[in-house]
Protein backbone atom coordinates (compact mmCIF):
# COMPACT_ATOMS: atom_id res chain seq x y z
CA UNK A 1 0.00 0.00 0.00
CA UNK A 2 1.33 3.43 -0.94
CA UNK A 3 1.88 5.94 1.81
CA UNK A 4 0.26 9.34 1.24
CA UNK A 5 2.57 12.19 0.32
CA UNK A 6 3.20 14.05 3.58
CA UNK A 7 1.48 17.41 3.76
CA UNK A 8 -0.33 19.73 6.12
CA UNK A 9 -3.72 21.27 5.47
CA UNK A 10 -4.73 24.20 7.67
CA UNK A 11 -7.72 26.51 7.69
CA UNK A 12 -7.85 29.90 9.37
CA UNK A 13 -8.08 33.63 8.78
CA UNK A 14 -5.20 35.13 6.83
CA UNK A 15 -5.32 38.89 6.21
CA UNK A 16 -8.92 38.90 7.39
CA UNK A 17 -10.17 36.21 5.00
CA UNK A 18 -10.88 32.54 5.77
CA UNK A 19 -8.27 30.56 3.80
CA UNK A 20 -7.19 26.98 3.23
CA UNK A 21 -3.43 26.48 3.30
CA UNK A 22 -1.51 23.45 2.11
CA UNK A 23 2.16 22.84 2.90
CA UNK A 24 4.25 20.08 1.35
CA UNK A 25 7.93 19.40 0.75
CA UNK A 26 9.50 20.02 -2.63
CA UNK A 27 13.23 19.42 -3.02
CA UNK A 28 13.48 19.26 0.79
CA UNK A 29 11.87 22.67 1.38
CA UNK A 30 8.36 23.42 2.66
CA UNK A 31 6.18 25.00 -0.04
CA UNK A 32 3.01 26.85 0.94
CA UNK A 33 -0.07 27.29 -1.23
CA UNK A 34 -3.10 29.35 -0.22
CA UNK A 35 -6.45 28.37 -1.70
CA UNK A 36 -4.56 26.18 -4.18
CA UNK A 37 -2.28 28.95 -5.45
CA UNK A 38 1.42 29.68 -4.98
CA UNK A 39 2.46 33.24 -4.16
CA UNK A 40 6.16 34.11 -3.94
CA UNK A 41 5.58 36.94 -1.44
CA UNK A 42 3.71 34.61 0.92
CA UNK A 43 6.37 31.92 0.41
CA UNK A 44 9.11 34.39 1.38
CA UNK A 45 7.21 35.42 4.54
CA UNK A 46 6.67 31.72 5.38
CA UNK A 47 10.39 31.01 4.88
CA UNK A 48 11.23 33.76 7.39
CA UNK A 49 8.76 32.34 9.92
CA UNK A 50 10.28 28.85 9.47
CA UNK A 51 13.69 30.18 10.54
CA UNK A 52 12.26 30.99 13.96
CA UNK A 53 9.53 28.36 14.27
CA UNK A 54 8.02 28.40 17.78
CA UNK A 55 8.62 25.43 20.05
CA UNK A 56 6.07 22.64 19.87
CA UNK A 57 4.67 21.81 23.29
CA UNK A 58 6.83 24.57 24.72
CA UNK A 59 10.03 22.51 24.63
CA UNK A 60 10.74 21.00 21.19
CA UNK A 61 12.23 23.18 18.46
CA UNK A 62 11.72 21.39 15.14
CA UNK A 63 14.37 21.40 12.39
CA UNK A 64 14.14 24.63 10.33
CA UNK A 65 12.87 23.35 6.98
CA UNK A 66 10.79 20.43 8.19
CA UNK A 67 7.06 19.81 8.05
CA UNK A 68 7.09 19.85 11.85
CA UNK A 69 8.44 23.41 11.69
CA UNK A 70 5.73 24.27 9.16
CA UNK A 71 3.11 22.79 11.52
CA UNK A 72 4.44 24.92 14.38
CA UNK A 73 4.36 28.09 12.24
CA UNK A 74 0.81 27.40 11.02
CA UNK A 75 -0.37 26.62 14.54
CA UNK A 76 1.22 29.64 16.20
CA UNK A 77 2.20 32.59 14.02
CA UNK A 78 1.03 32.38 10.40
CA UNK A 79 -2.67 33.13 10.67
CA UNK A 80 -4.22 36.38 11.95
CA UNK A 81 -4.12 37.09 15.69
CA UNK A 82 -7.25 35.63 17.26
CA UNK A 83 -7.75 33.11 14.45
CA UNK A 84 -7.63 29.57 15.79
CA UNK A 85 -6.64 27.39 12.84
CA UNK A 86 -7.72 23.82 12.24
CA UNK A 87 -4.76 21.74 11.14
CA UNK A 88 -4.61 18.26 9.63
CA UNK A 89 -1.39 16.35 9.04
CA UNK A 90 -1.53 13.82 6.22
CA UNK A 91 1.15 11.15 6.04
CA UNK A 92 4.35 11.20 8.08
CA UNK A 93 5.31 14.83 8.78
CA UNK A 94 7.89 13.81 11.39
CA UNK A 95 7.76 12.89 15.02
CA UNK A 96 8.39 14.86 18.16
CA UNK A 97 10.99 13.00 20.21
CA UNK A 98 9.63 11.84 23.54
CA UNK A 99 10.81 9.76 26.43
CA UNK A 100 8.86 6.60 27.15
CA UNK A 101 8.58 7.07 30.88
CA UNK A 102 5.73 5.36 32.62
CA UNK A 103 3.39 7.70 34.43
CA UNK A 104 4.59 10.83 32.58
CA UNK A 105 1.93 12.75 30.69
CA UNK A 106 2.96 15.09 27.88
TrEMBL record:
It comes from the Bacteria. This is Uncharacterized protein. It comes from Caloramator quimbayensis.
